[in-house]
Every structure is written in structure tokens, then in C-alpha cells.
Design goal:
Elements: E1 35-43, E2 54-58, E3 84-88, E4 94-100, E5 116-122, E6 130-135, E7 162-163, E8 170-172, E9 175-176
Parallel strand pairs: 1-8, 1-9
Antiparallel strand pairs: 1-4, 2-3, 2-5, 5-6, 7-8
Length: 192
């Protein structure tokens, strides 16, 4: 086995540029839809917070339309909703986004996918982005989502956010890059 050299990895002084792209709120105040705060912590294989990571999210609007100038499936995108967020993790490895619960989107081959948020994870030592999904708790459509059903049942919980007990509208989704930490196993990542 060959080991990566310093010139082949990201870090140890990783700094994600283009700070002007950072956006934690994906909607304007007048936009209709169920407000959701998505927050969590990113940890490494030792359970240590990743303090210099970055998380991007991309999602459909409440109508199930991805924001794009041409719309999607004949529907116009919801004005005032960006569908994209990007934030670095803080000194405790935490991130937070304010968004709207997405609608269902078409699945490849027909049918509909459960409401979900696509998440890209960037971190020191990770050469390519890692992609995962965030599903909503207590969502009946999770039972027949074709992507979620491809994941072994024992691992699906790492893709479903949990509700914050004392804060309505707040969902917790921790990103575990390796091992078992924060009360869960390693987050499922997809090979895109």
C-alpha cells in the first residue's frame, strides 16, 4: 500500500476560499414554506470536532422544484428561495442552516423520492467531496424512497435527522467521517 504524501492531501492548513459564497439562510422572509433549521457537528475518526471543514447543501423548494432559471418538470422555481447553502464549521465543529422543508422530487425510473437535502462535505485530508443526504424524521415517504431503500437497514439512521426535543423546527444531523461517535455510526456517503 502506498501512503499519501503531504503534496497529495489537503492540509494541514486547509482554508476553503470564496467566503462570499457562504450562506446559511436559503430563503427570503416572505417565501412560504415550513421553516427548518438544520444543525449538527462534524467529527473525525477519533471523535474530535472538525473545526476547518465546510458543508454545502442543495435542495428542492417546497414544491419539489430545484432552483434553476428554467425550472423543473414544467414548474417555475419559487422566487426568493436559493436552494443552496454553504458554511464552514465553527471552532466546535458545528454548522447550521436555515431552510425550508423540500417537496418530493421525481425519482429515476419514475415515482417520487422522499423530501431530502443533498449535503456535500469537505474536510482536511479529503481529496474529493463526500456526498450524503439528509432525510426528515417521521416522514412517511422515507419508506418508499428508492435511494434510502438501497442503504442497509442498519445504516439508514445515519441519513435521517432527529428533531430537537426543546426547539420545534430544529433538526439535528451529525456528520461522522469514521467510526462510531456522537451516538451514531459513520455517516453513509454515496459514490457519485
Amino acid at each position: 500500500m502506498l501512503y499519501a504524501t503531504a503534496s497529495q492531501t489537503v492540509g494541514p492548513y486547509l482554508h476553503i476560499g470564496l467566503d462570499w459564497l457562504n450562506r446559511d439562510t436559503l430563503y427570503d422572509d416572505a417565501v412560504p414554506g415550513e421553516r427548518v433549521t438544520l444543525e449538527g457537528c462534524m467529527v473525525d475518526g477519533d471523535g474530535a470536532p472538525i473545526t476547518d471543514g465546510m458543508i454545502e447543501i442543495w435542495q428542492a423548494d417546497p414544491q419539489g422544484v430545484y432552483p434553476h432559471p428554467e425550472g423543473h418538470a414544467g414548474k417555475a422555481p419559487l422566487p426568493g428561495f436559493s436552494g443552496f447553502g454553504r458554511m464552514p464549521t465553527d471552532a466546535a465543529g458545528r454548522y447550521r442552516f436555515r431552510t425550508l422543508k423540500p417537496g418530493r422530487v421525481a425519482a429515476p425510473g419514475g415515482g417520487l423520492q422522499a423530501p431530502h437535502i443533498v449535503m456535500s462535505v469537505f474536510a482536511r485530508g479529503v481529496l474529493k467531496r463526500m456526498a450524503t443526504r439528509v432525510y426528515f424524521p417521521d416522514e412517511p415517504a422515507n419508506a418508499d424512497d428508492p435511494v434510502l431503500q438501497c442503504v442497509p437497514a442498519a445504516r439508514r439512521a445515519t441519513l435521517v435527522a432527529t428533531r430537537h426535543a426543546q426547539q420545534p423546527g430544529v433538526l439535528q444531523f451529525n456528520v461522522v467521517l469514521q467510526g462510531t461517535h456522537l451516538g451514531q455510526g459513520e455517516t453513509v456517503f454515496f459514490d457519485l
